[in-house]
Structure formats: C-alpha cells, structure tokens
Amino acid sequence: MATSGTNAKNLPKEQLIAGFNELRQQQRMLASRMSEIEMDMKEHDLVIDVLKGVDPSRKCYRMIGGVLVERTVDVVLPGLATNREKMKEYIESLRNSLEAKGKELNQFRETHGIQIKADDSRDEKQADTASKGGDRQANILANV
C-alpha cells in the first residue's frame, strides 16, 4: 500500500510536468508558424517589388491552390498586396498569442514552483568541475 501512495504523490507532479511541456510545445509551434509566415511575407515583398517595375498588361503566372493560373500583372499585383496585408495581420495576432502563451507559461512555472533543470545542471557541472579540480590538487599533493 505504501507504493500506491507514493505513486499517487508522483502522479500530480508528472501531470504538472506534462502540462508545462505542453505549454512549451504550444509556444514553440506559435513561434514556428510565425517564422513561416514571415518568410512567406518576404517572398511576397520580393515578387511585389519585381512586378511594380513590369508593364501591367504583361502575362504572369500565379499558383492558386496548387494550380498554376495565367493572369496579367495588373490583376496579380493587387491580390499579392492584399495577401501580404492579411499575413501582416496574422503575424500580429500570432505575436499576441505568443506573448500571452509566454505569460501563461511563466505564471504556470511560478504557481507550481517548476524549475528548469538545464539551469541547475550548469551550476552543478561547474561545482563538480571545481571540486574535481580541488581533489586532483589534493591527490597530487598527497603523492609528492
């Protein structure tokens, strides 16, 4: 019975860690999606800049839903500008969601007293290295 009580105590801790990791994963996904959209925006900017210097009646091709469509520059250019503006708005909403997720993550950490082990392990490694170095000096002095 003692082991079942121990498992019951560990379960909430495991659930807290799982919840924390889920929040971190959601935050990473938001940042990744924001990065993808920013790259698409840069591509749109390049194409818009090129098309601004081209004759408006010239043919151009655009991929719409996986289908290559022939249009003229004067038709395509406003559509690209509109898409770019929508991407800009979407990035702003993603940025707000990312900030909110970061606040939620920090609040979760503070509420449940979660510490990230990577920070602690660096301090421990430095302490271990210092103590091992001291032991080596003691060993060297003992052998002399």
What does this structure look like?
It is a single chain. The protein is mostly helical and 144 residues long. 82% of the residues lie in helices and 8% in strands. The protein has helices spanning 2-52, 73-112, 117-143; strands spanning 59-64, 67-72. Helix 1 (2-52) packs antiparallel against helix 2. The longest helix is centred in the first third of the chain and has 51 residues, at 2-52. Residues 1-11 and 130-144 have low confidence and may be disordered.
* Unreliable sequence segments: 1-11, 130-144
Shape: rod-shaped
Mean pLDDT: 80
> What's the count of strands?
2
Approximately how much helix is present in the residues? over 70%
Classify the beta-strand content into a percent band.
Answer: 5-15%
**Number of helical runs?**
3
The major β-sheet equals:
2 strands, antiparallel
First-to-last CA distance: 57 Å
What's the alpha carbon Rg, rounded to whole Å?
28 Å
**Major β-sheet strand ordering:** 1-2
Going by helix content, strand content and strand pairing, the class is: mainly alpha
Order of helices and strands: HEEHH
